[in-house]
Amino acid sequence: MGIAERKNREKQALRERILAAARHIVMREGFAALSMRKIAEAIEYSPAALYLHFASRDEIARALCEEGYAQLLQTFEPLAGIADPAERLKGMGRAYVAFGVAHRETYRLIFMEDPSYTGAALGAKASAAVSGPSVGSEAQTRAQAEQPGTEDDPGAAALQFMISALDELKAAGRLAASVDPRVWADAFWATLHGIVALHLTCPVFPSAPLDTVVGIAMDTWLGAGGVAADADPVGIASSNANGAVSRRKRTGAAGAQSSSQDNAQVKGQGEAQAEAQSEVQDGPGAEPAATRRRATKKAR
């Protein structure tokens, strides 16, 4: 072994020791406790030695996020063998939540600490794909996922896992042709993240066993027996339509009631004004005008 090769190996070994110590601190004490000095003490090096490998604590955090996200993706690999795409997506949802619960501090660091950490985990191509326009998204997403080097881009790999399953559902007529797979994937991911984030931060969530909550969420999105061809997974369209109809009905009823009240008020005001005019013309003791009108009608 040459001198240069030995130095490279030693450098890589020290880098791995730094990351291992940082990972241990984060998992045991949380990210707020992580510092260059504490890492140096853990590996028995001077803090200056760490700066030869990492420019800052943030750089170490980004490296940990990359590792953590790669670990999350590994939990999806066994799911590729599930033939039914809907069941494959359900399996992905359960695996995602299970990872977040089992690796709390790693999940927090990747998705709940700093956007730059999340970007480092997902990769540049995935960030561009998620933030890009939705016009022509199905073809655009597929093209981005097939770009050279995508297989090494963790974010694009996770997105493509969902897109492929959704394409299969559409091809089989089990998902509406109007569904945009990338938007669907974004919303599905948001549901999973919401479950994990609430579990990690909210002491009263969930009110039922977590597996039950996850199962209901998966069935809501994908159905207990798969998805139908005209499926509206989140029910947004029908909900908005029903809401609009209800609002129109309420508005119409309120308008009709208001109109009736206004007409009655105008009629009452007219009669009162007529009585006042009669009293002025005929004197205070005269028979009321309304009484004279009723008498005239009876005579006719």
TrEMBL record:
Residues 291-300 have a biased composition (Basic residues). Residues 12-72 form the HTH tetR-type domain. It holds the Pfam family TetR_N. Residues 256-266 have a biased composition (Polar residues). The keyword Transcription regulation applies. Keywords: DNA-binding, Transcription, Transcription regulation. The keyword Transcription regulation applies. Residues 35-54 bind DNA. InterPro entries: Homeodomain-like_sf (IPR009057), HTH-type_TetR-like_transc_reg (IPR050109), HTH_TetR (IPR001647), Tet_transcr_reg_TetR-rel_C_sf (IPR036271). Residues 133-153, 242-300 are annotated as: Disordered. This is AcrR family transcriptional regulator. It comes from Paraburkholderia caledonica.
